Each structure stands twice: as C-alpha cells, then as structure tokens.
Amino acid sequence: MKREVETKFYKFRQNNSGGYYDDDENVAAIVVIEALDEKHAMSIMEPLIENCSPSCSCCGDRWSLYLSDEIEEEDMLKGCNAEIYTHYKDCKERWFYLYGEFDREEEPRVKPNHFKQEVFGAKCTFKNIEEYLQFEANNYFLSSNNAVIHYMDGIKKKFFSKIYKKDEVSTDKK
Question: In b/e form, how buried is each residue of 10-44, taking b as 16+ CB within 10 angstroms?
C-alpha cells in the first residue's frame, strides 16, 4: 500500500537578540521546517531551540514560535525583489553575483525602491524551496549560516550567503 502525505514549509526568523544570532547544526537566522501543519512545525522547532540563548531585555525574545510563516509555492513563483543600492559603485556586479543565478521577470535596472531611494534590481522567481532559501541567504546575510531547512525525512540542508564565500575568494585579476 502506498501512502502519500501532503506537507508544507514553515519559516521561523530568529531575532538578533543581544546583537548576535545563535548558529549551530540545527538553527540559523532563518529556519524552515517541513511539517503537516503549523502545530506540527512548532513541535519540531521547539527541541531545536531549547539550548539557544534566551531573550535580552532590550531586544526581546530570540524566537517566537507563534510567528511562523507558511511558505506558499505560489509566493515563490511570484518572486521577491532583489535590490542593491546604487551608491555602491559596483552595484551591478554585486547584483549579478548575488542574484544572477535566479530566474527573473525582467532584466535588472536602476529604479526607485519603496523608500524612494535609487536601487539596481529586478524581481527574482524560484523553482523550488531550496532556490528560495539560497535567495534568502544571499539577500539577508545576517550570519555566516543564514538558513537551514529540516525535511520530514530527517535530512537537513544549510544555506550560506555568497557574501561570505566571496570574502574567502581572492578578487585579484590576473
């Protein structure tokens, strides 16, 4: 007998409580849990964060299990804006380094963002959850270990910002 179960993905964002992020084999700035429903995702997340540092008086709780976001496949296909401020002389090079691997609706261009500041950017779309998480890691390079996904079958995968990888590579042109 073959049994199929439909699962969903839930995203938990870590608060920068105390000015740093807890970062280990199970947690990162962003943790995504594959689960049957939100309650199931929370029950998987709770033991992962039990050894994390607590809140601080000025920043608040590091984790809020009640603020998970369901990641809809539809939302991944709609995409996310990827933008680099134009005050960086190499904004185009930075953009293509961080986001050039992702599908996009149009070629990136200079435009005003929602703060009416000039940015170079375009909307990126994603084929799957892992592409989306790599985008999140590149976009929100909050710590060296930016995102981790925990699949229902026990497999987990980490996503690192290309910013940290770029710093390790010599940029000397020969």
Answer: bbbbbbebeeebbbeebbbbbbbbbbeebebbbeb
